[in-house]
Structure formats: C-alpha cells, structure tokens
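[audit] Reproducing an earlier prediction to check determinism. Same input, same settings, fresh worker. If the tokens differ from the archived copy the diff job will pick it up downstream; this log only records the rerun itself.
[audit] input (139 residues):
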Amino acid sequence: MSVTWPKNIFIVLFFGAQLSLALPGFLYNQYEEDGRFSWNMYSTLYRCNIRYDLIRADGERIPINYRRLLNNPTRSYEFLNRNDLPKFNEFVCDVMRQRKEMEEIHASVVCQLNDRPPVQFIKPDVDICTASNYGVSPP
C-alpha cells in the first residue's frame, strides 16, 4: 500500500465536506438567505429598487436617503434579504424618531434575482414603523 492512498481519501473527504456545506446555500431560495457563506454569492445578480419616504401629516412625501444613515454606505446591499430587512427598517424608524422627523415612513424594496420575476419585500403604502415585522411581507 502506498502513502498516496490515505492522502487521496483525505482530499476526497475534504472536498466532499466543503461541497456539502455550500450546496444547501446554493440550492435554497436566495431571497430568504443572503448567501454570504456559500460560493454562490459570486454567481447571482441582484437588481433592487429601494425607496424610503417620510410621509408628513399633510401627505407630502419626502425621500429619505437611507445610505446616509449607514456608517458604511457601500455595504448597504447586506440588508436586502428577508432576515435582515426588518432590523434595518427598525433602525430607520429609530433614527428618524431621534431626529424628531417622525410622521410615517413608507418603503419600497423590490428585488430581482438574475432573470427571475421581481419580488416585493415590503407591503406597499404601509407605515413600516407600526406595521408587523416592520412592513416586510412574508415569503
């Protein structure tokens, strides 16, 4: 028996374990998980239209630049999944409360994965600060 036989078994088991860890993340609907763990993050293309509006008592809509609320605006894509979006909406509501600019906040987050049909993450025309799950619709 040569020394390469145990080494080959180790290599096959090692790569098998790596594949088995990444495969569920690749097969699962990426709208539900953000995909940062598995290698499929490099093979997906998201297109998202994001809008947050402050609604005044008189009905005036004032756009909120949500990226300016973040410490690192270039990483704003990280909350675009159903797991993190309610936390981000809660954060937006808290910041606007602290600034005393709070009436109602409506949001629209519509994303498309590769060439699939677009998915609307937030219920339309709902105050995200008072809605259940901060306005994020169930899957």
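[audit] rerun output stored. Observation attached for the diff report: The mean pLDDT is 79.
[audit] end
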